[in-house]
Structures are given as C-alpha cells and as structure tokens.
Design a protein that fits this description.
This protein is α+β, with helices and mostly antiparallel strands. The protein has helices spanning 16-25, 27-38, 57-65, 72-75, 77-83, 93-107, 109-113, 116-131, 139-151, 165-178, 185-189, 192-214, 222-234, 239-250, 254-269, 272-283, 297-309, 386-403, and strands at residues 41-46, 49-55, 137-138, 316-319, 324-326, 329-331, 336-340, 404-408, 430-435. The protein has one domain: Cytochrome P450 (Cytochrome p450, Orthogonal Bundle). It has 18 helices and nine strands. The chain has a four-stranded mixed β-sheet. The radius of gyration is 22 Å and the shape is globular.
C-alpha cells in the first residue's frame, strides 16, 4: 500500500505560493491540468498547507458513499463559529441527520414548490415596479434581494421592512466570503461594518422567532412546519436553534441562486441562436403555470448547462476523521482533503468542448452519467437548498426571458475572478430590463 509521500505533487509556477495563486486565479483549468498529469489523487499547496486532492468520477463515488469518513465539524468549523453549533453544514452523524429531518418540511421537493405560483406573482410585481423608472439594475445584487424579499412573504412569512433586505443580503454575501479566509477570517468578521450587518440580520430573525413563539398558530408556512418538526424531534423550541433554522429557510442559498440566474442570463444573451430557440419555447408558455416549466426542455437545458459551467463552488474541503484507502493510497486520519467534485464538468470525455456554453448537449436524454454532476455535492450531505435553487432560478430565467429584453450598460466580462469557495462575478453587472414587444 502506497503512503501519502508517494502521492504526486502538482505545482504551477516557481513555488508553492505561485501555484496556490494559479489555482485561485483559475481553479477549473488548474484541476483539469492536475488531473491530466497526476490522475485522481494528487497533492497541491493551497494558501498555507499541502492538501490531498481527490478528483474524477471514482472520487465522487467514494466521497459521497463514505460520509462517515469525513469530519464536517472539523472541516467546516468556521460555520459553527459564525452561525452557531446547530448549523447543518458542520454537523456529523446523528446530529446532522436530525437537523436535516427538521428542515425536511421546508426543503424537500413538495415544500420547495409550494409557493412557486406566489413567487411568480411577487416577481412579476417587483420587476414591473423596478423597471418602470428605466434605471439600470445591478443584476447580481437585485436577484439576491428579490429572492430574500419574496421568501419573507412566502416560505417564512414575516413583516420585515423591504428597506432592510439589502443589508441582510449584504451580510449573507460577506459572511460566506469570509468563512474560509484562514488567518484573515477573524479580522474580517471583527470589522464594525460586518458586525453591524450581522447584528441587524439576527435582530430581524430574532423578532420573527419571538413572534412565532408568542403566537404559534398565527402562521401556516414552510417555517411553521419546520418549527413543528423541531418540537417533534427535540422536544423543545430553542430560540437560537430556531434562528438558525429560519436562516436556512429564508436567507441561505440566495446568493448562489442569484449567481445561477445571473450566469444563465449572461450566457444566453451571449448566444443569440440559443436565445431565439429558447424563446420559441417560452413564448408558447402562458407565463403563469409554473408546473408547465417541467415540459420545457430548452429551459431545463439552459439551467443544467449553467450549473455545469459555473457551479457555485469549484472544490470542497474535507477533513479525514478516520484513515481510509483510495486508489491504492493509505490516507491517514487527520489529513486535509480537497475534493474536486465538479472536475468532471470540464472533462472532454463527458462534455465535449467543456468550457463552452452548449446547452443543447442536455437535450440528448440520458447521455450523461449522474456522477459527472457535482453541482450540489452528493451522499447524505447533498446540498439542502438544491430544490430552492433549481426551482427559483428556472422560474426567474423563464419569466425574464419571456417578458423582457436585457440591455447591458457595458459588455460583461466572462472572466471568473474566483475565491476558494465561489464563482461569482465581482464586477457590477448594470443592465436595463425593458418589456418585450411580443410579451
């Protein structure tokens, strides 16, 4: 059995620091090249230490089937430190399963679809009001704020003032970007601006919880179902834990969903032939029946290809809570693992011309192996918000492309200046949405 020292090291540049920068500047190509040179197991330096990387379909199968190997509490400890000890991303074993069971009444397919008709009505009203002035919108910010605002009226009904939504969304964005800054994270979250935004978000979540606890019969929505599940599973309604539950139902994932919407619109507008084909499908839609979207192959292909080429995360960090073997290597307990879970998205053997936006590839039913899709992870820790992300993004993209033309203030850059944990464009995407003449 080979040891860690036998695992090949992959570097780009003159030293480890340069290699770490190369990875961070272009993670997709970096790991494609690493896999091509070293195979499914290699070591690479990132930030301040050496990581063992697992990549490819066999790695996905192994990581997702063997959840007990990984200590999520160790790998994702910043989530506990920032969001409390009951945060699902950093839970293991029984605690993790219990938390997922509590959230199930909000995040499963049925509950995620429960308010889609109301979501569409709110979206229609919001867009009509926002575009009436003719002023440009910053699209990434706008979509995240719309999602959180509508969620406050549907999935977790509340009376949060609309003017508070931008600050709440800004906290969510900064919180996620600050989680894995290593030595810089503590100074990042100690900034007065950040502390004020977090306190404000928690103030509003706390006020919602207090109202629910005072009048438990007042609401019937996804969050009230979560509260009932928590009482059943734990026998109590702990206020701090309820705040975390509310965060996951109301705010969490809004930034990634906005990112998906933005990229779907940007890519589609850069491909006029596909936009025309997609609009033929959308123009036949009555614009109101959300269930009809399930029978729109071009629309689904647009979302699937966007997820493939611009997933929310490019690698996921793991921590080996126990020793394991993979591809003939003995990996000891305590190893830092980097799982390149979306590597297959960019492999020619699965997706020819993988760095090109070609949604028509997904019109060929059954062509692609499931383990090539790592967008939301897999196994018992698969992303809880995947249904919200897929349903909401599909609905927004469909409504916008059916009813509006998008006029960008300047041609947006398609370079992805990424961090370790995301592929969001950092530049402002200013655009005017004008009603289509045919809508």
């Amino acid at each position: 059995m080979k040891t860690v020292e036998d695992i090949p090291i992959y570097r780009e540049g003159t030293d480890d620091i340069a290699s770490s920068e190369a990875f961070q500047n272009d993670p997709m190509h970096f790991h494609v090249r690493a896999y091509a040179e070293c195979g499914p197991v290699y070591r690479t330096w990132f930030r301040d230490r050496m990581w063992i990387t697992l990549a490819g379909l066999d790695a996905n199968d192994f990581v997702w089937r063997n959840s007990s190997v990984w200590s999520y509490g160790t790998a994702n400890a910043p989530f506990h430190q920032e969001m409390g000890l009951d945060h699902v991303t950093a839970l293991d074993g029984k605690e993790h399963l219990t938390k997922r069971a509590i959230l199930k009444p909000a995040v499963n397919q049925g509950p995620s679809m429960r308010y889609l008709p109301e979501f569409l009505e709110h979206l229609r009203s919001e867009l009509k009001a926002e575009t009436a002035s003719g002023e440009p919108l910053e699209l990434m910010t706008y979509w995240s704020e719309v999602i959180v605002w509508i969620a406050s009226k549907t999935y977790a009904k509340s009376e949060v003032p609309k003017e508070e939504i931008p600050r709440i969304c800004r906290w969510e964005y900064q919180m996620l970007r600050g989680l894995f800054l290593d030595d810089f994270r503590h100074s990042y979250v100690a900034r007065e601006e950040y502390k004020e935004m977090k306190a404000n978000a928690y103030k509003w979540m706390g006020s919602i919880i207090d109202e629910r606890l005072a009048e438990p019969e007042k609401y019937a929505d996804n969050f009230s179902d979560v509260m009932a599940a928590r009482l059943e599973k734990t026998g109590e309604l702990n206020r701090d834990w309820l705040i975390n539950d509310l965060y996951l139902v109301w705010i969490a994932g809004s930034d990634n969903t906005a990112n998906l919407i933005n990229w779907a619109l940007l890519f589609t507008y850069q491909n006029p032939d596909w936009l025309a084909q997609l609009r033929v499908e959308l123009d036949a839609w009555d614009g109101a029946d959300v269930m009809a979207m399930a029978d729109m192959p071009c629309l689904k292909a647009t979302i699937m290809e966007t997820n493939r080429i611009r997933p929310g995360q490019f690698v996921l960090n793991k921590y080996a809570g126990e020793a394991f073997e993979f591809e003939g290597f003995a990996i000891p307990e305590g190893s830092d693992i980097m799982h390149a879970h979306v590597l297959a998205h960019y492999m020619d053997e699965f997706y020819p011309d993988p760095f090109a936006f070609v949604p028509s590839r997904f019109l060929e039913s059954g062509k692609f192996a499931p383990k090539t899709d790592g967008t939301f992870g897999g196994g018992t820790h698969i992303c809880l918000g995947r249904n919200y992300a897929m349903f909401q993004s599909t609905l927004v993209v469909a409504h916008v492309l059916k009813h509006y033309d998008i006029h960008f203030e300047k041609s947006p850059s398609f370079d992805v200046r990424v961090t370790y944990n995301g592929g969001r464009l950092e530049e402002d995407i200013l655009a005017k949405l004008t009603p289509r003449e045919t809508s």
